[in-house]
Design goal:
Keywords: Signal. This is ABC transporter substrate-binding protein. Residues 1-17 form the signal peptide. The chain is an alpha/beta fold and 408 residues long. It folds into two domains: 33-161 and 309-375, D-Maltodextrin-Binding Protein, domain 2, CATH 3.40.190.10; 163-308 and 387-406, 3-Layer(aba) Sandwich (D-Maltodextrin-Binding Protein, domain 2), CATH 3.40.190. The protein has helices at 7-19, 33-40, 54-72, 83-95, 110-118, 131-136, 142-145, 180-189, 202-215, 220-223, 233-247, 261-269, 283-289, 322-332, 335-342, 360-368, 378-384, 392-406, and strands at residues 44-49, 75-80, 105-108, 146-147, 150-151, 156-163, 165-169, 275-278, 297-300, 306-314, 385-386.
């Protein structure tokens, strides 16, 4: 008597057999680069990333995507999603033991990287296999070794470097404040013309960390100390006191804080507030070119300094196309892609690439880029640079700001 396999069981067996051919069943960090390129050719790479900046989106869609197709035969699909939602998706897939996932590359850093690493949501160390990283980056740079205090261990590749600045309308403000104390005086003298995003929002949280740094005896008291080992109470009390003192003079008397940087930028572009802020010291340049920000927009930093960080690209534990992901990341780290990103037309952010390791012709092209009047000099930015604190401060600020400022 013949035994027949039920159709649904046959289908499940076929799916299981197909899943065995997924590229994530092989350790691609042990393969040659030629083998990786060959395996990437003709595949699709799904890049999941925050999509809230049209200039960044344009850079990916109009430059990276066609170049990847031409150079590697890789079809890049950009999927806009906030990073915590991306990690939640990966967590769900991990709990379901989904080894053939839906994400190939993630744009990530900070507390999101810490969470991804701790929950084993990432592929593991891969940067040693990337030719462009090893040829054109100072692989020993401390900025690439830790990410908001978390050891990187090759699990993410440096994609960009940003520094926090404030933007202002120079036709309305002659001398921007130089310290947090001067900012407090300016806010009192110009009620309703300043605000900052909520602590849950990345930019708003960064502004609050600047206040925290300023209230410490030295900024290093924060960024060199793990939160659980730091007696932060006196500094925290001064921080909440400062924020409560300025609240009544903020936009809408502090009864509403912008939910996003996009909302704050809109208030600035409409003249409701006279300052905005954000990571990426040159981000105003493209917004000026697009007519979103007034041409009189300039930027400034305040004492004791300006927080900067590196942001990265990483690969999930269950990327279905690991060679394609490696090829895409390698291209995005290339001198040509970094040069295009450095230009103010779309993105215009700084680069983590090592200029000393660049060919002379590319080096000259970088130096020839006009970043616009709204961008501070490299010297001023470097002099004001402050490292990030460990990621635990981000969540701590979210909770404490709500309790100590919003609810009071």
């Amino acid at each position: 008597m013949k035994k027949f396999i039920p159709f649904f069981l046959l289908a499940m067996l076929l799916v299981a057999a197909c899943s065995e051919t997924s590229t994530n069943t092989k350790d691609w960090t042990e393969a040659s680069w030629d083998e990786i390129e060959a395996a990437a050719d003709g595949t699709e790479v799904r890049l999941y990333m925050w999509g809230g900046d049209e200039g960044i989106n344009a850079y990916i869609d109009n430059y990276v995507t066609p170049q990847l197709e031409d150079q590697y035969g890789v079809s890049l699909k950009r999927v806009p999603l906030d990073t915590p939602e991306i990690l939640q998706k990966l967590q769900t897939e991990k709990q379901a033991n989904k080894q053939n996932g839906s994400i190939d590359v993630i744009w990530i850093n900070g507390e999101n990287f810490k969470n991804a690493k701790e929950n084993e949501l990432l592929m593991g160390s891969f940067t040693e296999v990337l030719p462009n990283f090893n040829d054109y980056y100072n692989t020993e740079d401390l900025a690439f070794q830790t990410d908001f205090g978390t050891e990187v261990e090759g699990m993410e590749a440096p994609w960009g470097k940003v520094q926090f600045v404030f933007h202002y309308d120079s036709e309305k403000i002659t001398n921007p404040p130089a310290t947090m104390e001067e900012l407090q005086t300016w806010i009192a003298d110009n009620p309703g013309k300043f605000t900052y995003p909520r602590a849950e929002e990345f930019t708003g949280n960064a502004f609050l960390r600047h206040v925290l740094y300023a209230q410490a005896e030295r900024p290093s008291d924060i960024y060199e100390q793990p939160l659980e080992e730091n007696d932060i109470t006196p500094t925290a009390e001064r921080t909440w006191s400062y924020l409560n003192e300025i609240e009544n003079d903020l936009w809408r008397s502090g009864e509403h804080y912008p939910n996003s940087l996009t909302e704050l930028d809109r208030l600035y572009s409409q003249g409701e507030v006279w300052m905005t802020m954000g990571y990426n010291e040159s981000r105003a340049a493209s917004l000026i070119l697009e007519g979103v920000f007034p041409e009189s927009t300039r930027s400034f930093v305040m004492e004791p300094g300006s927080i900067g960080n590196t942001h990265f690209l990483s690969i999930p534990f269950n990327s279905p196309n690991q060679p394609g992901a490696l090829a895409a990341i390698n291209f995005m780290l290339s001198p040509e892609a970094q040069l295009e990103k450095y230009k103010p037309d779309d993105w215009g952010e700084n680069t983590p690439i090592s200029f000393e390791q660049l060919p002379e012709d590319i080096k000259k092209e970088f130096k020839a880029v006009e970043r616009g009047e709204s961008v501070l000099s490299t010297e001023e930015l470097e002099e004001s640079f402050l490292p990030e604190s460990e990621a635990a401060y981000v969540d701590w600020i979210k909770e404490q700001w709500f309790n100590e400022v919003v609810q009071k």
